[in-house]
From TrEMBL:
One of its GO terms (molecular function) is DNA-binding transcription factor activity. One of its GO terms (biological process) is response to stress. This is DNA-binding MarR family transcriptional regulator. It comes from the Bacteria.
Length: 184
C-alpha cells in the first residue's frame, strides 16, 4: 500500500476549516498509532502475565507517583471505570504479585493509598510496553524542541481523554456550551 505524501500548498493565512482538517488528520494518525500500540500492549500484557486493567492501573499509579500525588482505591476504580468489589480483586492481585502496596493515608488514618513497588525495568515495560530499539531510534531523531512539543501535545491529549465521559467533565462541558450558545 502506498501513501500519497503530497500536501496542499502552504497558505499565508489558514482558514478555520484548514485548521480543523489538519487537526483531524493529526488525530487520525494518532488513532492509527494507537491501534498499533494496543496490539503491542497486548503482547506485553501476555509477556508480563497481566491484563489490561492491571497495566492501566499501574500506569495511572506511576504517573501519579511521578507527580507526587497519592491515589486511593476509589479514585483508581473511578479512573478504570470499575466497581469497588472489582478494584479490591485487582489490588489483591497486584499486591500479591509485588507490584503495589497499600499504605495508610498520611491525610486520613481511615483511608488507604496505593503505592507502586515495581522494579525499574518492570516500570519501563508497564509504561511503554516492549520498548523496541527501532522505536527508540525513531524517537531519538527528534530535536529536543520537537520532542518537548510532541510530549506536551500527547500529555495534553491524554489528560483530555482521561477527563472525557466523567461526570465533572460532562458538567463543565455543558456549562461551557451553554455559555457559548448564550453569547451568540
Amino acid at each position: 500500500m502506498t501513501t500519497d505524501k503530497t500536501s496542499p500548498a502552504p497558505h499565508y493565512w489558514y482558514s478555520a476549516e484548514t485548521d480543523r482538517e489538519r487537526a483531524i488528520e493529526v488525530l487520525e494518525h494518532l488513532r492509527a498509532y494507537g491501534a498499533a500500540d494496543s496490539a503491542m500492549q497486548r503482547r506485553s500484557e501476555k509477556a508480563m502475565r497481566m491484563n489490561e486493567n492491571d497495566i492501566s492501573a499501574l500506569r495511572y499509579l506511576l504517573r501519579a507517583s511521578e507527580r507526587g500525588q497519592t491515589v486511593g482505591p476509589r479514585e483508581l476504580a473511578d479512573y478504570l471505570g470499575i466497581q469497588s468489589s472489582s478494584i479490591t480483586v485487582l489490588l489483591d492481585r497486584l499486591e500479591k504479585a509485588g507490584h503495589i502496596q497499600r499504605s495508610p493515608s498520611p491525610f486520613d488514618r481511615r483511608a488507604l493509598i496505593i503505592v507502586p513497588t515495581m522494579p525499574t525495568d518492570e516500570v519501563q515495560r508497564a509504561i511503554l510496553g516492549d520498548v523496541r530499539e527501532e522505536l527508540v531510534e525513531i524517537a531519538s531523531d527528534l530535536s529536543p524542541e520537537d520532542a518537548e512539543t510532541v510530549v506536551e501535545f500527547i500529555d495534553r491529549l491524554r489528560d483530555a481523554v482521561d477527563q472525557l465521559d466523567t461526570p465533572a467533565a460532562d458538567t463543565a462541558s455543558k456549562k461551557q456550551q451553554a455559555g457559548i450558545r448564550s453569547s451568540h
